User: What shape does this take?
Amino acid sequence: MGNLFSLAYQCLSESRLDEKLRLSEQSAKKILSGTIDVSPIDEDINLIKVGRPDKPLLIDPRELPRRNMQNDEGRAAMIHSIAHIEFNAINLAWDLIYRFQEMPEDFYFDWTRVAAEETKHFQLLQSQLRTLGYEYGDFPAHNCLWDMAEQTAHDLLLRLAVVPRILEARGLDVTPGLISRFRQIKDKSTSTILELILEEEIGHVKTGTKWYRYQCEKLNFDPEKKFRQIAKEYMPSNNIKKINHEARLMAGFRQSELDYLVAH
Assistant: This one.
């Protein structure tokens, strides 16, 4: 039958890229088929080994060069940066499942669906890179998303507030602009992929919102008040200038939360 948490750890710890994608895809299918054991396993979560390939080279985000999307290299670099976010999102979903083993079964099925979609997103972007003659790992990248995952590893509520509702929600704000830029350079295939990613990322942020509010209720916190406290500490220093109100409302944000984010 297999154990859900063992499968999640296999996906999380695998460092070979092709094998990681294969494992992620197959494990998600097995878990979502319902024929899976969801009993917690006795493992030391402090020994979690996160698998990633040797490349890309991870550098300070301030050192990443600006690219001109009018040429193939610049376009590939932009696609690579989005693919890198999706790669981290695969690890984030499996880490969330493996690390927090005392949640309702629906929690794990929800995040398994997210893992499956993040895997698909990465594969679509990887295919685009290859059409331009590049591979994932050919450009440097930063590790900010995973750094934040490590900072929130000790607290499920914090993880759900920061990763889906602060960091990934920023993707809802910036992706429409990326779609427009790829349309301007007549790259219809990449813009179509980004449209799909935007649609499905709304669902991912909504899943984060759903379980964030569940955890707030469980811990007797006011979800909006708590989110303001967390956002004040963890919001990136480059303040939000433009909010995708429609997408964020679809993802479960309340208008009062959006008003707070814009004001601060």
In short: The chain has a mean pLDDT of 92. The chain has two domains: 1-45+71-141, 142-264. The longest helix spans residues 188-219. The chain is about 65% helix and 0% strand.
